[in-house]
Amino acid sequence: MISDTTHSSKQAPLSAATLELFAREVAKYPPAGKQSAVMACLAIVQKDEGFVSLQREREIAAYLGMAPIAVHEVTTFYNMYNQQPVGRFKLNVCTNLPCQLRDGAVALAHLEKKLGIHMGETTPDGMFTLQQSECLGACADSPVMLVNDRTMCSFMSNEKLDQLVDGLRASTTEGAQ
Ligand code: FES
Questions:
Q1: Most buried of the four, 41, 82, 105, 110, by CB within 10 Å?
Q2: Measured in angstroms, how far is the CA atom of residue 53 from the centroid of ligand 1?
Q3: Which atom of ligand 1 is nearest to 136's Cα?
Q4: Residue 94, ligand 1, Cβ within 6 A
């Protein structure tokens, strides 16, 4: 059994609007294949709530007629699903072997030092979450990282990492001036 030790407070059940979005995804598949909508349903919840709790996994499992562990396997396999709240900028640094051989660990250590947090943590201001990632398919560009699951950054020297972090920080204050 999976136990929720980090976010055990009970959430309200999924809203009718969310269930309607689920139904739209399920409708894309034949009835026997409705479980194929699991990734889309997880993405819908994450878009709404910022992460996917174990409660939401169980609700999605019930909706799709799946075992909760099967949904949990999907959530934990893909880095893009957050199992807990993350910062405004999620930084995923690839530390698989090819990247390790070309300064992947150096990049991660540099970010830990610059942000003052360890891998897996979020800065106290909620701005950055730092994570390791599996191969991003760009080994020749190491060190490589993804920002917010979408923006790939290549050849991340310490200098480029500094520029990236400072630029992201500055971007959050630009509209406020
Ligand atoms: S091992 Fe890092 S991108 Fe492939």
A1: 41
A2: 28
A3: 3
A4: yes
